[in-house]
Design brief:
ten-stranded mixed β-sheet, two-stranded antiparallel ribbon, 12 strands
Amino acid sequence: MKKVFYHVLTPMHIGSGTTLSLIDLPIQREAHTDFPVMPSSAIKGVIRASFNEQEQEDISGKEDKEKGDEEKKISLVEDIFGKGDEEGKIIFTDGKILLFPVKSLKGVFVWITSPYVLERFKRDTEINVEIPEVEKDNAVVSSNKVLINNNKLVLEEFTFNASINENLKKLKEITKCEIDENKIVVVSDDVFKFFVKNYTEVNARIKIDQAKGTVQTGGLWYEELLPAETVFYGCIDARKK
């Protein structure tokens, strides 16, 4: 089974379809943790669309197109990703959150994680990572470069007592993502949940009446997005058919 990491480069919306909050279009979240999640179906759909587009470009670029190239392409995509109710040869797991960006008074922003998130990551991937114990008002950082007076970490409007554990820098090497190894922070599970629940991006959207050129009545809604720099992980496996 191949471990994969997803580094969000622009604000991203994977919708849940339903809401009980003031946000009309919330992001998908795990039922038991309220953490953001990337459903396996969404991951598979995006990769399938990209694969399909690339195959189409390859066929269109051929000077000597053979009869049946289009049918072969469709057959290949269906064989790999499945057709209708039939399963494909590739299995995707849900993308689970590993690192979440939060504004920092020093260093612009940091990536936060938590003991539970790291424990789950270790279990799911069988990658050995150090899991610090962290109390609610404390934090463990990978470097003093994000600290005030060498022992205080300020995230948004909250201040934490901080200690340093340089072993956290290994997460950059593990994920292979373009993150700053000096800006990795472990906070408590409750604090992590608070940030991923309350510090996503929420944008107001409007719908314009094309005839009048004004905002359509009832055309204001709010959409939630995952912030850029969020990091997820998951697995991809192949099944024999």
